[in-house]
Amino acid sequence: MRVDPQTNARPASQPLDRSLTANMQMILDLLGHSQDLIVKRFASTGGCRMCLLYIEGLTDKQFIHDAVLEPLIKLDRGRETLEREGPEYLRDLVGALTAGDVEELDELHSLLFHLLSGNAILLLDGIGVGLRVGADGSKARAVGEPTSQAVVRGPMDAFTEQIRTNTALIRRRIKDPGLWLESRQIGTITKTDVSIMYMKQLADDNVVQEVRRRLDRICIDGILESGYIEEFIQDKTLTPFQTVYNSERPDTIAAGLLEGRVAILVDGTPFVLLVPALFVQYFQAAEDYYQRADISTLLRIIRFLAFFIALLAPSFYIAVTTYHQEMIPTSLLISLAAQREGVPFPALIEALIMEITYEILREAGVRMPRTVGQAVSIVGTLVIGQAAVEAGIVSAVMVIIVSITAISSYVIPSSGMSISVRMIRFVLMGLAASIGFYGILVGLIILVLHLSSLSSFGVPYMSPFGPYVREDLKDTLFRVPWPSMIRRPKSIETKDVIRQKKRSKQ
């Protein structure tokens, strides 16, 4: 059966033909005679005709030559033996290959999937079965250091774009048979490998089942990054806050698994998703658990303080200078008035000019080449800020406010939470310019109510603050020493809440 390559029909559930020529023609037509499809036709010593197919660049050529071609050429049985002893001959053929990963395929669609996944396909004349030989030789990036979640003390390895490398990095840390892995393909065209990892003896069955359900209902033609999956499985779309945590650090994901969470790995990206996610989780860094408890507590307090500075500093300045000048000491008020004397814009417009300018410079620094991006960002900020003050467009205090706000946003460990703060900051600035501190207070009340309404796979987002869970406060604003964290977080339902068990005496 020949398939028209101009149509969009897919070869669903079509069995292989016994004729080698017919099978080859169908495969070539479906792949459009692509130049990277390598076809090697040969015959065994006994005259049995065979064909080996693989995609150049995805398959290890040397492995194919050593483990497949050489053993097959030396076979001494021919076509008549194949027709008379089909199943037995096929088993002998599999035994002759030195490759360890060999599978029989009798359906065209499955054959094409494995071919395009980096496997070699062996077809024989006279039998409607092909052999898949695992010979993946695609180039993979070596395990390197984390770029977005760096630490001073702790492991320095990070996930890569290879999903099997990522699962191996997690298994190196959790050597337990209870670490289960489930895989599926998502994307009608890309057929991207997506895996679920969880601790069977810890993870809540309802959460695991909900993850399966949300993944299985995804219907899209392609998945290119874990961000696709995140948007499909998040609890609420209309929110600036992430309810699915992501990390490129294997130790962070392993720690989440040991607390009863579920990890979602996507082939082609170094960022692994972790659910359920809590608000406080975005202020925790991997380094917190490798330093002493008092040092970790100090760093966390600084992060929460930086969060409020990044969120409220510009709006607080706008409210004070516009509506509540009586709250400013007289000497400071005179200094501010002198600085703003030549500024033609109100405080809100002044703040918007500086904030938008800094956001443009920040984005330009990210997109420009690394060799010049950081230098251009720093120099551009200094030059533009100084020039704006000298030109009388903005005041010097506003430059200071915007600078401390920008620096504070970088203190937050999660880039997703940092972006959320930057978005909400503009709303609070508008409220502060409208009705002063009352506007800021209304905005904060709405923000707290919104956060309290969020959930992540059935777990309240603001837990353990709302609902209040006293036991889980040991690892929130501060961290108690490890000997005191006997139980796992109660906010996340786990089958076994005891983390530290007494050893039985030998």
Question: How would you characterize this protein structure?
Answer:
The structure is a single chain. This protein has helices at residues 20-30, 61-73, 79-84, 86-96, 108-116, 163-173, 205-216, 226-233, 250-258, 293-322, 330-340, 347-367, 370-390, 396-411, 415-435, 437-453; strands spanning 37-43, 49-55, 102-105, 120-124, 130-133, 179-186, 192-199, 245-247, 262-266, 272-275, 455-456, 459-460. By secondary structure, it is an alpha+beta fold. The strands form three sheets. The chain has a five-stranded antiparallel beta sheet, with helices on both faces. A hairpin with a 5-residue loop joins β1 (37-43) and β2 (49-55). α10 (293-322) runs antiparallel to α14 and α12 (347-367) runs antiparallel to α15.
Short structural description:
This protein has helices at residues 20-30, 61-73, 79-84, 86-96, 108-116, 163-173, 205-216, 226-233, 250-258, 293-322, 330-340, 347-367, 370-390, 396-411, 415-435, 437-453; strands at residues 37-43, 49-55, 102-105, 120-124, 130-133, 179-186, 192-199, 245-247, 262-266, 272-275, 455-456, 459-460.
